[in-house]
């Protein structure tokens, strides 16, 4: 995965996209796409103009890391969020258990957490133990955000499509939280035990 560091470089120098556009002649749309890492590529003359203005090398303008996210296990709760005949939403505190593998260069970080829908549909949280946060902080922020985006996108799609919830949710309502290790471990254990096949899931 390749990421452009333009946003960081501009912030360090106190330069905004409009000013850079004026000084380089590059379009604001091009610079904004690079700043937000939404562009599909970059021309050599564009890269040359940016590097000259910021006095950086292409290696400083771009970062590379071998990043991957693999959802190795999801276990939806047997009881689902649903709208009752009287119109009231029946909310489920935890809708699913997630086990996620994060690959960063040659290391693997395994995240185990729960999809908290206690405040559905206004706010949905994916909660992991705080020890996972310490491991993830070794990954540069620009790549860490991609990992969080992938997890959030998976959760949104699973809730909206697989669970068939009465009110669709968006990425804006999703957030990832890191909570006390013992608390999360106990909540995960209780979640598995609440399932019909809880003991099998817990010890397999």
Automatic annotation (TrEMBL):
Residues 6-61 form the HTH cro/C1-type domain. InterPro entries: Cro/C1-type_HTH, Lambda_DNA-bd_dom_sf. It holds the Pfam family HTH_26. One of its GO terms (molecular function) is DNA binding. SUPFAM superfamilies: lambda repressor-like DNA-binding domains. This is HTH cro/C1-type domain-containing protein. It comes from Paenibacillus antarcticus.
